[in-house]
Amino acid sequence: MVSARDGLPGSTGDGDRFGVTVRPGPEPGIVVVAVAGELDHDTAEPLHAALEEGIAAGARRILVDCSVLLFCDSTGLNVLLRARLAAKETGARIELAGLRPQVARMLAITGAGAVFPRYASIGEALAVPAADPDSGPAPEPETGRE
Questions:
Q1: Which of 20, 25, 43, 145 lies 20 to 30 Å from 121 when distance is taken between CA atoms?
Q2: Kind of pairing, strands 93-97 and 118-119?
Q3: Neighbours of 135 (CB within 10 A)
């Protein structure tokens, strides 16, 4: 599994701004990908690799925990959107949890938020049963974050 903690407390340099941690979910077919820091052109590769690995491993739900994601630019958004398409081809879903206001706003402005199921927290996402990947995004819970 991919695990990179570049740029988080105690590190220096450009690579020190972002971290990705991958762990199995509580049920088979669920993978939790936690992202932290600033997701941009210089830091997007670890997320791309983690999502690609989850899809290749046959995960049905890949939950991206964004609760400590401080920033996401168009490159990060592109990684998420491409992973969503790749996941859909295998019958899987990319779902977002714990969006901070600035990231939620970027998703709203671009319209990309409409294509991802979104949850207020990773705990809330894990409490919801997996939906049919062909049914479109699950209804978004009220989060008060946008």
A1: 43
A2: parallel
A3: 9
